[in-house]
Amino acid sequence: MANIRVRKETGKLYFDFFFKSVRCREHTALPDTRANRKLMDQALRKIEAEITLGTFDYAKTFPNSKRAAQFSGAAQPSVAVARANAGDGAGRGPTVGAFAEEWVSEKEVEWKRSYRQKIRDILDKYIRPEFGERGVSDIAKADLLKYRAKLAKVTHGTHTLSASRINQIMNVIKQILDEAADRFEFSTPFQGIKPLRLGRTQVDPFSFEEVQAFLTAVPEEWRHYFVVRFFTGMRTSEIDGLKWQYVNFDRREILIEETLVKGEEDTPKTHGSLRSIQMSQLVYDSLKAQQAVTGRYGRYVFCTRNGYAIQYNNVSNRVWYPTLKTLGLKRRNPYQTRHTAATLWLASGESPEWIARQMGHTNTKMLFTVYSRYVPNLTRQDGSAFERLLLQNFQLPPVFPISRDAESETGSSIHDRAEEKLKAVRHG
347 versus 282: which is more confidently predicted? Predict the structure, then answer.
């Protein structure tokens, strides 16, 4: 079992792993910090994957090591690669499990920490159990279609996997096999397999009355937290990771620069999520009041009395859902506060471009495809604004009834008679 360990005498980190049945320890000059452990863990995963694939070059990885000479010479191919080169019918390339580790070690530098965890979860729960021991070139299109159908029947409690989740799992398999196909020169089995069609995004925003009722009923120490959630559209990770250094009262803006995901600080979801949110007066007042409470505790705007960041599961289970239950409101997850902010802004007539910037969207597409249909329910004014515009600014000339006797007249004579009547009306 490979590990990152620390030498007690120096406090420096070192690699501890096995290569060709020999235990190897390679020391570094890096002190024991979270960042250094993270860096070394990435390197160790790559080493393990290369050892599995039979492509690990000890001297190249540790050129100053005393063991470099011991393991000198060309890297020995793995059993899977050797069989593929020998042409004994085993297929081309290593096993899916081995190649997946190599692929992850090369790609994870591009990924956010939360996405790395997501990929690891998919690999361990779904891909390894199904395909891990099979060769990358042994997977056929029929195998993938059968597996997708199998995933559709997987249940967690009373729920089956969503189409979105199934697509995520299949997309990871696709990336692995596409890359393997390119390296080991075989045709990818994913040709012609399209993602499952996704249903419309399900949002269930609160009405004005429901927001008012919730903020009135929620425990007082959490009122400011939910005012900010309802009226800024911040994601859970964004508000839980909000620090005072990103709250500018002079400019009346909140900067979204960091997030908190499963207790770990991270960067926002996408580049577009880096943004500035304007404070309404209600949000400004709530943050000012919150500053008087938690400003002395630490960095986080919403935190425990010891200054630690709050845990969203605790807030949801101890505050959010009990308040909904007390009010007899429909059970909805806390993310609906973000959807509510979007619909309230739209209902108030704010510019869609401005709303998109506040939400961290790169364009207004989602506003019109997801949120706009909820605006009439919030304002109870479906079409009435246009009606008022017509009544106030647009007038047609009066229409006079034409007698049956006029039906036989020419068009010009009817027009003349209408003009005479109109002149009579104008001159009294």
Answer: 282
| Helical spans, DSSP H, in 206-332 | 208-217, 223-232, 236-240, 281-294, 312-315, 321-327
When computed from its CA atoms, the radius of gyration of the chain, rounded to whole angstroms, is 32
How many angstroms separate the Cα of 174 from the Cα of each of 105, 230, 286, 288, 417? Answer: 17, 39, 47, 50, 78
Residue 192's SS3 state is coil
CB atoms within 10 A of CB 64: 7
The DSSP string of 96-151 is HHHHHHHHHHHHGGGS-HHHHHHHHHHIIIIIHHHHTTSBGGG--HHHHHHHHHHH
- The pLDDT of residue 82: 44
Distance of CA 198 to the CA centre of its chain: 16
Helices (H) and strands (E) in the chain, counts: 20, 10
Which residue pairs from 267-276 have beta carbons closer than 8 angstroms and sit at least 24 positions apart in sequence?
Answer: 267/112, 268/238, 268/360, 269/235, 269/237, 269/360, 270/360, 270/362, 272/360, 272/361, 272/362, 273/235, 273/238, 273/360, 274/360, 275/357, 275/358, 275/360
- Greater confidence, 91 or 113? 113
**Tokens representing 127?**
């891909």
H-only helix segments in 233-367: 236-240, 281-294, 312-315, 321-327, 336-347, 352-359, 365-366
* Global confidence as pTM: 0.60
Question: Treating both helix axes as pointing N-terminal to C-terminal, what angle do 96-107 and 34-53 enclose, rounded to 10 degrees?
Answer: 140
Neighbouring C-beta atoms of residue 341, cutoff 10 Å: 25
Average per-residue pLDDT for the chain: 83
| Interval 229-281: pLDDT, tens | 999 999 999 999 999 999 999 999 999 999 988 888 888 877 778 999 999 99
Q: What is the pLDDT of residues 159-201, one digit of tens each?
A: 888 899 999 999 999 999 999 998 888 889 998 899 998 876 6
Tokens of 109: 């530098």
- The pLDDT value recorded for residue 261 is 85
- Sequence-distant (6+) residues with CB within 8 A of 392 are none
Residues 246, 287: contact at Cβ < 8 Å? no
Q: What local confidence, expressed as pLDDT, does residue 402 receive?
A: 47
- Give tens-digit pLDDT for 7-54: 888 889 999 988 887 888 899 989 999 889 988 988 898 898 888 878
Element (H, E) at 253: strand 253-256
The two structure tokens encoding residue 79? 């059993």
Could you write out the DSSP letters of every residue in 26-62? EEEEEES-HHHHHHHHHHHHHHHHHHHHT---HHHHS
